[in-house]
């Protein structure tokens, strides 16, 4: 592997020639990226299964197809997004003065991806950086080694090697990369590493986008249809064996609703994965033994309604629901990032809002209610990266919505036009004729 300094210098030299700025170059890279995904779907799906036990259906829906749709959306709108936007000019500058804003690429950017959606969360920021006209260093996750290897090989053959580099490896390689000067760093992962990234970026005054996580609550009101709620909660929580940054982390509801919700969750999980989820081809696995052990240590935090068992050798942890959970218990002290769903009870809406606001701002907040007033109050009285009313996770699939956190759950956002804005400088331009 080339030294990171040599890699960054090579990409910076390419960027300085203006190679990446023409719209034609950007479109070509996006089309090649799309072809890479569609022509190599079986190989990518096999790698995702090897790393995380993902089914081919889930790999297509949440990784490969997701990214293809984002590429298509960007290709359809890129010309419009890049069009200079006129700005009104005050009278004292004269009638012949003009003003506008335009997007300039930042330069050489670094994209560091996590392991839980190792294709989507590397390629979606990457496509945004390319659409903005940047040179890019892509760092896939070493904790998803099969996917990392496939992506590294395919990206090197499908994208412009003068302007796109892939660096594989673990902590030493990432540390070496962070010592270099970039024009933007995009990191997806946890807050601990996010702080390391931010400290390294500060040495060069490099702007960062941090896509972190947190404990995303799901408030279930007493008027909600619990069958529908359970179906949607189970689908959102246990996708990718719960290893999703915006998965419902815990349920917040009143005691009577909690009791009624328990059997509905049991039914919903069985409808998804059968009576033995370990045998279901649609249910994934925990990424490694370390995370399996961490998650297993959380299972004593409440009464087991469903699941509560696993097999370390195969990294299988059953879809688990815990009731009678104390807010001070271990399962409520950290982001779960696995297939464990605690139910925490509060007397009502006021207390639920207080509970949410007493904790770090979550990446997502989900609300299940028939009440317009309840929806309005939670929207106004709480802060979260995204708000899902009646459906978890789905806001990520809307390319015209920004995706990102707030406070402890991250800084900055992307998807669609917001990716272009993240990886560009919006330059102000004023023109006044000399004659």
Q: Any chance you could write out the topology, listing elements then pairs?
A:
Elements: H1 4-16, H2 23-39, H3 41-52, H4 56-82, E1 85-87, E2 98-105, E3 108-112, H5 120-131, E4 135-139, H6 145-158, E5 164-166, H7 171-178, E6 184-188, H8 191-202, E7 208-211, E8 217-220, H9 226-238, E9 250-253, H10 255-273, H11 289-296, E10 303-306, E11 310-311, E12 316-317, E13 320-323, E14 340-345, H12 349-357, E15 364-368, H13 372-381, E16 386-389, E17 403-404, E18 410-411, E19 413-414, H14 417-422, E20 424-431
Parallel strand pairs: 3-4, 3-6, 4-5, 6-7, 8-9, 8-15, 9-14, 13-14, 15-16
Antiparallel strand pairs: 1-2, 2-20, 7-18, 10-13, 11-12, 17-19
Helix pairs in contact: 2-4, 3-4, 3-6, 4-5, 9-10
Overall description:
Helices cover 41% and strands 19% of the residues. The strands form five sheets. A seven-stranded mixed beta sheet has the order 10-13-14-9-8-15-16, with helices on both faces. The longest helix is centred in the first third of the chain and has 27 residues, at 56-82. It is of the alpha/beta class and 435 residues long. It is globular, with a radius of gyration of 23 Å.
Q: In whole angstroms, how far apart are the ends? A: 56 Å
**Average of the residue pLDDT scores:** 97
Number of strands: 20
Across the major sheet, the strand order is 10-13-14-9-8-15-16
Concise overview:
By secondary structure, this protein is of the alpha/beta class. It is 41% helix and 19% strand.
Structure characteristics:
alpha/beta; seven-stranded mixed β-sheet; 435 residues
